[in-house]
Design brief:
The protein has 2 domains: 13-156 and 231-273, Vaccinia Virus protein VP39 (Rossmann fold); 162-226, no CATH class. Helix content is 43%, strand content 17%. The chain is built from 11 helices and 7 strands. The chain has a 7-stranded mixed sheet, with helices on both faces.
Length: 283
């Protein structure tokens, strides 16, 4: 009807993860477990670990294999089902891994969860439509002395930067399937040609792609092209925001210089000897 606003499209993340699980291998699980272990860099045995936006459930599975007590949640019901499927396959009847449907923007839901030793959200918070609110809400779940681990798309300006890709992703999510398929085909061909142009072997690259956190090249391309809502930030913006809001200490960062995901590992401050919080975290 005239005057009604058209809701923004949302990418079907869960459908893509569902297809991903159909070809998941033990080697990919091993690679994912290695990536989580490297990023956390702490013994997870008996620690509490929350996976915000669990997607396929692969990172949750990795944390559970490393001995953590895991809570996974996602807003997308198909993603929730994927995470539940991995739990069913590898940890049936396991009471130390819970899976739920929920939103990081729902403060009422988050208030029921309690603090965690590790709050983990890789490549998720920039897909909520309210990235800064999502980052703040997620950080609020970190226990004193715990870790806050996030992966956020890097912001780039220019004609082929973040703003252009936001428009392309929005179009993709609204387009009929044949147009989506055509755009995927063009992008895949361009990506393969780019590898050849710089002297890389495309077949070897695709075969070894799971070395990146256990992911799949084909499913990652679909996720990249369709991942909407879509926001991004510079590393400086992330650091300034988290430090100003929570006074967390940055202990590790892996920065993507293009449009990919930059990783940040923060540590929350322990209470002072007098039982309070450091003065610059108050107010």
């Amino acid at each position: 009807m005239k005057g009604e606003s058209v809701a923004d499209p949302v990418f079907a993340f869960g459908e893509n993860w569902d297809r991903f699980l159909n070809s998941l291998s033990d080697e990919q699980i091993e690679q994912s477990t290695r990536a989580v272990r490297t990023l956390v860099a702490r013994d997870l045995q008996g620690k509490t670990f929350i996976d915000i936006g669990s997607g396929s459930g692969l990172s949750s599975l990795a944390a559970r294999m490393l001995g953590a007590r895991v809570h996974s949640f996602d807003y997308d019901h198909r993603s929730v089902a994927c995470t539940q499927e991995l739990r069913r396959r590898y940890f049936p009847r396991d009471e130390t891994w819970s899976v739920d449907k929920g939103s990081v923007l729902d403060k009422g839901y988050l208030a029921t969860l309690g603090p965690f030793d590790v709050v983990y959200s890789w490549g998720v918070l920039h897909h909520t439509g309210k990235m800064w609110d999502a980052i703040e809400n997620a950080a609020g779940l970190v226990r004193a002395g715990g870790l806050f681990i996030i992966g956020i798309y890097n912001y780039r300006g220019g004609r082929r930067g973040t703003a252009t890709w936001a428009r392309l992703k929005r179009w993709y999510c609204s387009a009929p399937r044949w147009q989506q398929f055509a755009w995927e085909s063009v992008y895949l061909a361009w990506d393969l040609a780019s590898m050849v142009a710089v002297g890389r072997n495309p077949l070897r690259m695709i075969r070894e792609y799971h070395g990146r956190r256990g992911m799949s090249w084909r499913h990652d391309v679909t996720d990249w092209l369709g991942g909407y809502p879509y926001e991004a930030a510079t590393p400086g913006e992330i650091l300034e925001f988290v430090r100003r809001k929570f006074n967390f200490v940055l202990i590790k960062q892996n920065i993507d210089l293009h449009l990919g995901v930059s990783e940040f590992v923060f540590e929350s401050a322990l209470p002072s000897a007098r039982g309070g919080v450091p003065p610059d975290t108050q107010g």
